[in-house]
């Protein structure tokens, strides 16, 4: 049973105990119901990533990446993959909500000898965990350039 299902059951039980009609006939009944239900537009958790355009330098170096997680509980996982212009994964990283802030900076490593300069992308999956329940949410792809000098 998901937390939203449990919340709905609790609200229905409280409504039955209070004898309040689920149809808001007066302002006080509507405010009781809306206070119990909370926001009716429960948004799904989202994550956004951004990497700046840069120069692909000789050797294996770290390149910056920003991320932001919204709407997830305390226990979330953000699995990201950096892909080159052919779609091959050239780097990956995982951030965990228990030890990582919801908004921050991190980096990924790429070796110039292993990739070709050009357009890269970062995308992934945000996993929101609530006990044994897990829901996966796709992280929209962000494109950036790593060019040669």
In short:
The chain is built from 2 helices and 8 strands. The chain has 149 residues and is an alpha+beta fold. A 5-stranded mixed sheet has the order 2-8-7-4-5, with no helix packed on it. A 3-stranded antiparallel sheet has the order 1-3-6, with no helix packed on it.
Description:
It is a single chain. This protein is 18% helix and 48% strand. It has 2 domains: 35 residues; 102 residues, Sandwich (Immunoglobulin-like), CATH 2.60.40. It is of the alpha+beta class and 149 residues long. It is built from 2 helices and 8 strands. The strands form 2 sheets. Strands 2-8-7-4-5 form a 5-stranded mixed beta sheet, with no helix packed on it. The protein has a 3-stranded antiparallel beta sheet with strand order 1-3-6, with no helix packed on it. About 14% of the residues have low confidence. It is elongated, with a radius of gyration of 22 Å.
Task: Outline the secondary-structure elements.
Elements: H1 3-18, H2 27-37, E1 46-50, E2 54-55, E3 60-70, E4 75-83, E5 89-96, E6 103-111, E7 118-130, E8 133-147
Parallel strand pairs: 2-8
Antiparallel strand pairs: 1-3, 3-6, 4-5, 4-7, 7-8
Task: Pick out its properties.
149 residues, alpha+beta, Immunoglobulin-like, 2 domains
The backbone outline, from C-alpha atoms, is: elongated
CATH superfamily of the largest domain: Immunoglobulins
Helix and strand run: HHEEEEEEEE
Q: What is the structural class? A: alpha+beta
Tally of distinct domains: 2
CATH fold assignment of the largest domain = Immunoglobulin-like
Tally of DSSP helical segments: 2
């Amino acid at each position: 049973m998901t937390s939203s299902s449990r919340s709905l059951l609790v609200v229905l039980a409280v409504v039955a105990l209070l004898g309040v009609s689920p149809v808001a006939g007066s302002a006080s009944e509507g405010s009781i119901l809306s206070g119990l239900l909370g926001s009716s537009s429960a948004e799904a958790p989202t994550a956004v990533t951004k990497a700046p355009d840069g120069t692909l330098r000789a050797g294996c170096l770290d390149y910056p990446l920003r991320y932001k997680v919204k709407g997830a509980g305390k226990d979330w996982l953000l699995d990201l993959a950096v892909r080159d212009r052919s779609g091959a994964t050239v780097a990956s990283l995982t951030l965990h909500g228990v030890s990582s802030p919801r908004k921050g900076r991190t980096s990924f490593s790429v070796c110039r000898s292993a990739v070709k300069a050009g357009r890269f992308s970062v995308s992934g999956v945000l996993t929101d965990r609530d006990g044994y329940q897990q829901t996966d949410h796709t992280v929209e792809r962000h494109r950036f350039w790593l060019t040669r000098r």
